[in-house]
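Bit of a strange request maybe. I'm writing a small parser for structure token strings and I need a real example to test against, not something I typed by hand. Could someone generate the tokens for this chain?
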Amino acid sequence: MPEPEPGPAAPHPATRPGRKLGPVADTVGSTHNSLLAPMRAAYLTSGLTLNDLSARVRLSKSKLSELLRGAGLYPRWENIRSLAVELRVPQWPLYRLWRQAAIEAHKSREWIERSSQGATTALTTSHTPPLEHRAFRETNEGDYSLYAQVFLNDEQRDSAVSDTFDILWLRWNDALASPDVRRYAWMVLRTTVKSRTPHLDGRPEFAAAAFDSVALQQLTEASARMSQIAESLELFTAMSRLPDRQLDVMVLRRLCGFTPDAVSALLGVPLATVRSDERHAIHFLESVICPPPPTGRNGA
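Reply from user aminoacidic:
Good idea to test on real output. This should exercise your parser:
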């Protein structure tokens, strides 16, 4: 899962003795990677070694290395929690991501409940995110849902938006240190939504949204509905070829009904950038959907 826009570079911790932490395993899913990222960052800045952690959490160094790399079997919550306590990573958003990642790893509900039984009671006092995070969520959650529903069904939309704010909670200090919190948060949302959107040849498939579009719902005649479906499918297929930011602007402007000023505020980019992205996107879509007629050798 690509990382959001980084903030100012943090000072490198002093070189620690022992084996270096390896990279995240290639088999790790997007949500699992989202919970590993803040734990790995906390470990790398803590000054602790795997040997130090092993003595504190009572897991072998090899097991800790596997856990921080996402290698081996999907971990039980008690192991994640014990490491989070030592690294001072907020447990509640981590637990929610752990549950979602377990579902994506095809773990049964029984396994999830059994693996976290007895360990969740300590979470009851850690449900409150920072005040600024709560305010940001209250301001943007509805708009994030409108964007996500273009790509995902209702259940996936709610999960993606909820996971986005959990990831932001875990990375809130990084978000505050970034050039623009809104831009940082939007990149987390976009990455989370795209990771759950079906893709074909590397392009997001969101044609299902055509059947929920406002224009389609307003049509009553079957022939008109079929025509609108065909037009929407063609448009959405063309839109899937747009660069990320142009696609975001077109989705927010044309499918969600946001004004240019609202899009600018939501994405954390200048209004001029929004207008430029929309203009270039429209030019591309018109060239694909309604290409100019071919000309002869003499321009006829």
